Amino acid sequence: MKLGRDWRQACRKKPGGVTAHWLKPWCQCLMVAGAIGAAFPGATAEVDGAGPRPKRAALPIKWIRALPVPLEPAFPPVDASELCGDKPQGPAWIDRMHGAFYKSMCFTAVWFDGFFGSARFDDEYQATHGSFAVGALWDERDHWDPSVRFRVQMALPQLNDRFSAFVGKVDPDEFVTELRDDFDTLPRQFGREVDDEVLFGLGYRQPGRRGGYFDAGIGTSLDAPDEPYVKGTYRIAVPMLERNLLRLRETVFWEDRERLGATTRFDLDRLLSDDFLARWTGSATVTQETEGIRWLSHVTLFRNLGIGRAISYQAGITAESDREVPITDYGLRVIYRRTIFDRDWLFLELRSSLTWPRESLLENREAVWGAGVAIEMMFGERRD
User: Fold this and answer.
1) Are 36 and 58 in contact (CB under 8 A)?
2) Neighbour tally for 155: CB within 10 Å
């Protein structure tokens, strides 16, 4: 993948410039794509039309051989593309981009897994999955807020079937504390204390027993300064009668910003009909740095419109009990989502909201209209 000089020069402008602020999320997106292309040229050759794919993707191992310890990756005895074969796809450029993005992530998993033995010949690496979303939010108070988010969960079967690696550009507080709602393609419009950051970590998941399972993760932010985290979560789902499902989640975590903390969450689902599902979500977090209890409560009605379309209606409230303004935001929003271009892995999301935020005593609580749009690409197959 060859990236031109124009965007590089624009991204190097000083942070105080208007252009640099507007381009910030796009620059991060392009730098991620450039890094993938540089590290794994075999994964992007098909997209750029740069000639036939090499027999084996180039792997950045020179720095490993320079280490004063006997580390030597056990490279796959077969072409990495055989381990990371994606499902059949069309000839259009968007299909080639989708396949190249998935293969780049899978090649990364194969390379890391090489540290722990010879790569396996089964299809475990195809459990690598993730998403990439680009969009923007707008509201009457803060105006435009462009967003680029991605998540990648990479299988590491040679280390252990229970381990995986994670990399993503997400809200670090929401990711670590698990205090988040069901719609995270775009960031929250209000109440955010930090911007999205790129996180990298390793995860562990224990096989489920009687509807429950335990998972844990450890990692750090790749943005300066480094902010390490560690967390463990137990989840359980309890069917109730014929049309109800109660899901409970308890998370204990430590991170550099919030210190030690815990989050308790429940989701109560009620199947109203084949096309309607109602959900009540409640979540509360306590940390060494929070002022009292940080909590949220949402009631959501999901409707299946058929032919790859769905819409949800939500009313919610967020608060922190001991702040000068305990209720930071409440309101209504509508989220419409559908597949586009006849691809079941490509989605268009449209949002509209009416909220009443207030984050300090210096501002009045007034109605704020908002809107959002995003395109999200899913890749790989999630295997629970």
Assistant:
1) no
2) 23
Find all residues with CB under 8 Å of 17, minimum gap 6, and list them: none
Domain ranges of the chain: 128-384
- Whole-number Å distance between alpha carbons of 81 and 103: 8
Any idea which residue has 């959002």 for tokens? 372
| Cα 256 from chain centroid (whole Å) | 20
Q: Is 272's pLDDT higher than 50? A: yes
pLDDT of residue 17 exceeding 90, the answer is no
- List strand residue ranges (DSSP E) for the chain, in order: 129-139, 143-155, 163-170, 197-205, 212-221, 229-240, 244-255, 259-271, 276-287, 294-304, 309-320, 327-340, 343-355, 368-380
- The Cα 311–Cα 35 span in angstroms is 36
User: pLDDT digit string (tens) for 310-339?
Assistant: 999 999 999 998 888 999 999 999 999 999
Reported pTM: 0.69
CATH number assigned to the domain covering 128-384:
2.40.160.40
